Amino acid sequence: MNRDVLMILANEVKPFLELSRGPHRDDVFSVEKQLAMTLYYLRDQGSILMTANAFGVALCTVSVVVRIVCYVLTNKCELNVLKLPTTEQEMMELVSKMENKFCFLLAFGCVDGTQIPILSPRENPYDYLSYKMEHTLNIQTVCNYKGTFLHVDVRWP
User: What is the pTM of this model?
Assistant: First the structure.
């Protein structure tokens, strides 16, 4: 993601992530840094340690920031960046392109998911336990024929 796209996304989430700075709140991260930390964390395998080291913050800070930003992106913002096809024409166009490129019949996209490790949440920690007995957050995505995300869901333990 280039800087221009990051700034556009930051402007979209700013009303939900910007905290007021008071006399005792000089340590609050900018919206851009919160968003950058989250995107860095989600980019691959979601390593809290790698993200904390890259941004020079504590592990618990990364966990809190990622959780808040993901919540804002999935529940608070009306982003027009990701969208599934809404008309039959859009759907047929995606189906045709998927068939031409990969020979997948009657498919407009591919679904995949992953589990991102998180620190144990305070509320309902047992809901977030994976089959490996680790606390994780489930992520499901849908991509089109170009590998572009059409939909991302990060709401469920």
Answer: 0.53
